[in-house]
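Chain X:
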Amino acid sequence: MTAPGPAVDPAAEYRAARADAVLADRSDLGRLEIEGRDALDLLHRLTTNDVRGLGPREGTAAAFVTNKGRLVDLVTLHRLDGRILCLTGPGRSAGVAAYIDRYTFREDIRVRDLGRTHGTLGLFGARAGERAAALFGPEAAGRPLHHALSVTLAGAGAILARTFPLGGGGYHLTAGAEALGNLRRAILEGSPGLRVAGPQCLEALRIEAGLPLAGRELTEDYNPWEARLHDAIALDKGCYVGQEVIARLNTYKKVSRCLVRLEVRGGVPVPGALIESGGRAIGLLTSAASVPGEERVVALGYVRDEDAVEEAEVDVIDAGRRLGATVLGPAR
């Protein structure tokens, strides 16, 4: 008979992330392995960031966009020995693979979906760096954002990459499905007091961090500037799909709306709720969640650029309810 696992306690998980760190299953992320002589060059020509300049064990965030500069997905690209690991948004691996295939002609490039053969764990929180250093060494834990390297723990090999911080810090560990369980056990056994966090805790941390999500903030309704993806855009690189539009938006200051963080009072609104100021519509809410264990609701939404003012009071109109909200500032 299997022993029962620890009781799910999102409030305790959230407190642990804020004070220490949590371990989470992030196998919902898409995983693509990209190989071939022309892989770096083609990805450079298909994404918003400088991919061609990546050295071994280096990485970057980048966006795939349409030829009109609209968002397809935000990914992280990690250059390994002879291949590139691409982590996509949840459920977006097939879409990203199809996008790459659409623009592949005679290039030597092969894309393999690792969704079924591999999984990903996440280590997040205020002391995530300390926990990672204790497990994998200070040098591994201290590498720059999105840079990756191979690590081994209790015989289980994985790719460790520093990632967008949730609760103060963040790391992804991607490993073969057969090794993932052993890796998870080894991390918990080697990290006394480390809690496991579930989706409710992670969603609150994501929204508080202002990190946009595929299907919510990252859709073809928006462009990378509006989603606050400045760190995923290289303005000095050559031509890529959608580059002319993205460059023009920046040069001529044509970005008219901005993703912001909000705190909502009176309930949890649904995505798509209208955001108003002074009785006038100024944008749309895209994500919202209760903070576990606290009387707070945090949210993300797009508003007009002139309304993205810290401490501005707005209303969220959700199925006839008028909920008060405060703009906490730009998302990222």
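Chain Y:
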Amino acid sequence: MPPELSPGLQALRDHSEHVLGRQLPPFANASPPLHAAMCHTLLGSGKRLRPMLTYATGHALGAPLAQLDAPACAVEIIHAYSLIHDDLPAMDDDALRRGLPTTHIIYGEAMAILAGDALQARAFEVLAGDPTLQVPPATRLLMLRCLGQACGAQGMVGGQVMDLNATGKMLDGAGLEAMHGMKTGALIRTAVRLGGLVASATESELLALDRYASALGLAFQIRDDLLDIEAGTEVLGKTAGKDAAQSKPTFPSVLGLTASRQRLDQLAQTALVALDNLDADTIQLAELARYTVSREH
């Protein structure tokens, strides 16, 4: 049986939902269609893995919860923008996300693009301007730089370009891991790193956290690829079998099912071993690793 979230992690997830609800500009300050399109994806039911990772990392190293709100929300806002753009007809062309019609299906393609643009900008505004985040200016600038790298040409966007170019082609395992290390893994690594920076983590602690997050990001993608084959659309909340239908290289198509599951187990172990190098309360981070490799949607 896949693990349920512990009460502590469920509390973090619920907290992130509450805080995210306060992060969009007031309705009066945005056009109604744009505001509605931004809310549709950001405030829809999501796993909230990335903010939970930020909160759990900061908690492990002793950062107060309120200090983690801005970075946790900024990362999730970037994730929401990426989902809107990934689903567009020119990208993955999907009509279903989290069990609901995708943003462009409801609001039109142009409004979906603009909603994604506005969310991306809002993420940096939240991280740059939240007065609750009490860190030195140099640390806040570093956090902004990390977020920018995660969602730009060195991260998500670069990975998405590799994904588009790989459609109909066959990558090897190393190429697939490099692509998803950018497309999926970069933002997961940043979610963890931002929590560490708020907590004034040392360089050695940040290295251990990066090893943990790098393994977790790839594990997340392998589990996604397996679920795309094994789970139905109703369970996933998005169109099942879409990768195969679009001839996209996936871990099962490149490595096979058995080897993909073995690689998933290896990455889970790598993530857990990385936590052993931290003199910190890493129980929640370990639980998130186990959840990531065992989740059913």
